[in-house]
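Recall from the previous lesson that a structure prediction takes nothing but the amino acid sequence as input. Here we apply that procedure to 2,3-bisphosphoglycerate-dependent phosphoglycerate mutase from Kumtagia ephedrae. The sequence below is the only information supplied.
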Amino acid sequence: MSGTLVLVRHGQSDWNLKNLFTGWRDVDLTEQGHAEAKAAGATLAARGLKFDLAFTSVLQRAQKTCQHILDAVGQSDLETIRDQALNERDYGELSGLNKDDARQKWGEEQVHVWRRSYDIAPPGGESLKDTGARVWPYYLHDMQPHVLRGGTVLVAAHGNSLRALIMALDGLSKEEVVKLELGTGVPIVYRLNADSTVASKEVLTA
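The prediction returns the following tokens.
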């Protein structure tokens, strides 16, 4: 067995709460979101997990989630790499819109296609496939080598960037990945074999 990869979707954000398309907009966590991130850290601390390196996006909701987790495991000053490759999917013209208002403007069926298809992007934005096109190379080049050397790596990111990563790790089809739902602030612990295949996966629900 090689190393450990821990994935955590950021805690609830202000715009999650308001039912708005967020994407690359840099919104903060809610009180509940801060609590979810701290709880994720407590769960990981209870498992005795310590990290060698952390990765997050350039958006504050993921960065603050990452920091809460590191604080909880007693590693507040751990080296943390921030990169927009891990940003949420860019929703383009949908960004900032209430999801119900978007349905009124474009129709429920069209909005559903943009939200839940694999390779159809909203106007000016990214599909899940587009998101994967930046996440996968970044994982292979920047994150996976640390895990394969036996390290324990934390990734605090977003629903769609993590779905793309999980698609690759779990070998999901494009039909399967669009049905994948990730809870906010719920750690997913992967143990990887030396050949980069998954030895085990555990979802640490509260």
